[in-house]
Amino acid sequence: MAREVGLDAAIDMEAAEELLQEHAAAVIPHLELRGIAGDGNCLFRAAACQVPEGEEHHVALRAICAAGAADAWERYAPYLQPCGREQVLEWCRNMAQDRFWGDGLACRVLTDCLKRPMIIWRLMEPEQRPSCFVPALGVVGAPVQPIYLFLDERVRGAEHYWALVRGERPSQHSPWQALQPAAAGDGRRGSFRRRCLPASFFGTANQQASSGPWTRHGLTQGQMEELLLMQDQGVTPEELAAKFFPGQKEKLRLVRRWGSVDKEQIRAKVQAYVAAKAGAQTSGRAMAAAHRLHRSQCHAFQAERPPAASSWQEELGRRFSVAGRVEAGAPPEQRSSQMPLAQQCGRRSAKRTCSLHWRAHAAAAVSCPCSITCDPDPAHLEACASAAQKAAQEEHTGKLQAYLTPDASYWEAFRDFVCEGALGWDDFFMLLPKEDATRLAPLDLKVDYITRRGGQACVTAKQKKSLVRAVWKPVDVTEQLPTPASLRAFDFLMEHNDTYRTYVLRHRELLRANANSGNAWRYVPTAQLLLQMPGIEVAARPWLYVKASLGDTDVSDRLKALGILKASSNPSAKTHWLRKVLSRNVDFVKDYPLQALLHDVTMARTITAVVAVAEKQKISRDEAAADMPQFEQYWHHQAQKLEDVCRQAGKFPNLFFTIAPAEWRFPLHAGMFSKEDQEDLSQCQAWLTMHMHNCIAAVLDAVLWKNKAQAAELGIAEIEHYTYRFEFQGRGTIHVHAVAWVKYNPGVCVEELSGRSGARGQTSPLVRLLEEVFDCGAVDVQCGQSEHNLLRYVAGYVAKASDSLRFQKGDEGRGAPAETSRWRQVCRLLCKRSPLEQELAMYFAGLPMVETSFTGDRMYPPIPGSTAVNKYRHAYLAYQERLVAAHEEHCQVQEVAEDGRVLRLRNFVEWCRLFRLHQYVKTGENSWSYVVRERNARGRGTGKKCAIAMTWPFELLDIYCGAYAAAFFSSPRSRVVPSCR
């Protein structure tokens, strides 16, 4: 098959197009799809793949397109309405911007500028002839190879271009058959056939390329899967390098390394993933059983889900409520669609990617499959596991199948039973209004809170002022149900919800036992409520938890009792609750007493676990909780890490800024918020907080931290280190304080970068940038004042520490049993905590309060002469071993110049920044064997610097001097502590 096509024989444009149509029909079996990142540059990336310079040439190709249209505006004016020079120049200005989507006119201009024909096939109409573009001046001379593109129009408003490149051998099917919608009646409603390429290879129109260890090498996840599978089939590294990295000889070594044993875990995960996809799509359960997949995982692959929404408007229409009707509404006026992604099962998840045009093209829905699989159905988390399933579960190491994402179908059986037939939700709400649904609960939840409003802000937030309380109702549930529909709802719950039935029977026992007593029995003791009543939320909100498998606080005990989870599994109630908040159900996010209950229960368990770990390991409670931002010690360690960054940089930070965006002006996620929600954001604080947290971090990465060109325009030559923390305003809205160590361009006046929003004569370009990007009128930037910037930032840590939880000495042993003493500590700390709604949202979501460009670790300095044995002492002894043998076999303590000369020996702190103690094994009575690994060699922190937080014993001068000498002097221990004779 000829690769080029000659158009010299064509007498006019129509004849040239007919020649291209004939060429297209002949060449299509020889083409295959090539994945293109959906970052707004897909048209130019796909075209650049087929020019000698390669895909990285797409930026220059965009500039050529814009300049070519401006130079020949008369030729392209008829394509625009109204047609004229100004319209063409406006189009050119837009098209010259990075990530601005290419349109049909861009295809025409590219064809003319490259002097190569262009052929575009379409997914939605595969039988239609492709669109052919002929250069305006024709093709004279030698035949040329056309540019082959494929247009995916499944998501309206977010069309995506793929590149079509030559394959190794002809195919019997069209290259895009894997993207065709499934035929009717094939049992996979809304699925897409993906036979030609792995499912993870395909993304949606404006979905970013998959992130992973392969992306930095230019591969998609699908290509990486294909490469690993070909390795298993015996393909040589040379053949793989030639296929996946043509013309890149240096990649051969990389391919060989991927075939070594250190990739076995990744290879096993990829093989299981691909095998499960193939098993679920070809022969269902039989094939999946052949691959030894877990039953619920197999069912999740086969579960019939509705097709992905084609627009955010459609996604809003899928939201539902069990307590009342939810209007679909319209998307918010200021909106974004590039942050969280709406999964096919309805669960949203934040994605830290951002386009500078993040407010544009918001009508398109972004849908992608859940990681590995969607969550299982409730039926699979309610039946006892068989012996074979329990054995398989003991060997299972994949995704924890313990959580549920609420779907409207989970309430359909409940609705139909209440309505005595398959009626709609409107009939259900009429027969069982929320007032009657609340009567189904055998107990009520009480919590004290105040409403906070900052100034004249239109948005308010609730602040929790007490522990949650539970009160049993004075009569049996059936005695207060007013209608037959409510009685049918009660009968359904008693039959199908074991947890609800347990609490109803418990309530009846209490009523019988206290028939002649007062009301004291009705008030549940706080310790019992928070620590001894798993699944209490099911009894308090039975209309939301119609199935026992939806329970949060009993998820671990319930699934282990059924044999679904192995004993070592540790599912999180917070994660299960987060599934509900990020689902299409709007009831959970607006139920504040329920959120308060989940917070108190999980926080009580956390504090209890901290106390238990501290007692078991014989360490302080503050040390056991040092990694949790709710506790004081965490913030002290954060300040100590900043001190170590100052030591490494040799200077104080010289850039400090604060951003306080207003939530009512913040662009909202179009698939999560409707226009009605925008008018009452006070009811959606959990959604709003998670969305703002993700957006703020993503935008800062895109416009400042990882944007060298933007920083250079501001006068910043290099950003060496940075850190920023999230705080809460008076009404709870999150805002950001950032501090950075930067190098300014020569000649830049740092005072001109400093400024504040609203100040007279404001000229700071950094202030203007942050105001424009965040649509914010509360920005404060300070540059150059090093010590003031550090003190201002660390002062926030001190305030955080003073407001955080702190254990007090002597709580235990005051004449009370151990367990009672432990509960007293838990209760005292919980009573001190008074979080706002936004803090609850960040707590449940596990969102970081601090983000840094460096990694961190905590270390206690070695005390010379101390006989204590702990992991910090072992780290120092491992360093001493290498220090004594510095000139023999170990080189970890040597700082070596480029020419091989040993400049000096590293001290203990410097060594800890580069290496970590991985394992220590006792080999004798007083001897140990140490395994030391390089720090930040792999994972998210690859290549980053490490800051060591050290807590110094300042109160004891002699011990402090010894600790300082041991940590900062590169001397053997025998010199730090000489032997006394």
From TrEMBL:
It comes from the Eukaryota. One of its GO terms (molecular function) is cysteine-type deubiquitinase activity. InterPro entries: Helitron_helicase-like (IPR025476), OTU_dom (IPR003323), Papain-like_cys_pep_sf (IPR038765), Peptidase_C85-like (IPR050704). Residues 31-167 form the OTU domain. Coiled coil: none annotated. GO terms for biological process: protein deubiquitination. It holds the Pfam family Helitron_like_N. Gene3D superfamilies: 3.90.70.80. This is Pif1 protein.
